[in-house]
Design a protein that fits this description.
Blueprint (H helix, E strand, L loop, with lengths): L1 H15 L5 H15 L5 E4 L4 H4 L11 E6 L2 E12 L4 E8 L5 E8 L11 H4 L24 H23 L4
Antiparallel strand pairs: 1-2, 2-3, 3-4, 4-5
Length: 175
């Protein structure tokens, strides 16, 4: 029990140091626990050399890529990102297994009046199982959503960019 509390506090302090709002922290914790079927876990920040981040399609400059471990066992990765909607940005989480296969994607905060349907479990489910070998295309293998075209394209591009960036990091033995 004591280990569980210490682990949770460590995760909360780690994420708060990166200016993640408290409400989003709760969503992240809930998704990690449910996806990996665990109660306590640790986040380990993955530091990426700024020179390498210049060649990547995703933004890794905000300490937003983490290893997830529980009881000394490596479970996978968590990526916290932002993508543009019509006039704002939305926050999202991608959880991956140890082989960089998407286990879960979640829109954490959507700040527009329209387009919030991209946060539905049904729509986000289509990213599960995707890897860097997949090419995601709006309207082809990614469903369109009426009234959310900009956000759908943005999320699709963000996931594509993330997977390609993770492939580069893996090939360079960083992850």
């Amino acid at each position: 029990m004591k280990f569980k509390i210490v682990s949770i506090l460590a995760v909360v302090f780690l994420l708060m140091s990166f200016n993640v709002p408290k409400g989003i922290l709760k969503k992240i914790e809930k998704e990690i626990k449910a996806t990996y079927d665990i109660e306590a876990y640790q986040f380990i920040n993955i530091d990426i050399d700024p020179e390498i981040t210049k060649i990547l399609d995703s933004d890794f400059t905000k300490n937003n890529l983490f290893k997830i471990e529980a009881n000394g066992e490596f479970l996978g990765y968590a990526y916290l990102g932002q993508a543009p909607s019509k006039t704002a940005q939305f926050d999202y989480l991608v959880l991956l297994d140890t082989d960089l296969v998407i286990k879960k994607s979640k829109v954490l905060a959507y700040r527009e009046e329209y387009g919030g349907e991209i946060g539905s479990k049904r729509w986000l489910k289509q990213f599960i199982g995707k890897t860097a070998e997949d090419s995601l295309k709006y309207g082809d293998n990614i469903m369109a959503i009426s009234g959310a075209t900009i956000s759908v394209r943005s999320m699709t591009n963000a996931i594509n960019n993330l997977l390609q960036s993770l492939k580069v990091l893996h090939n360079k033995n960083i992850i």
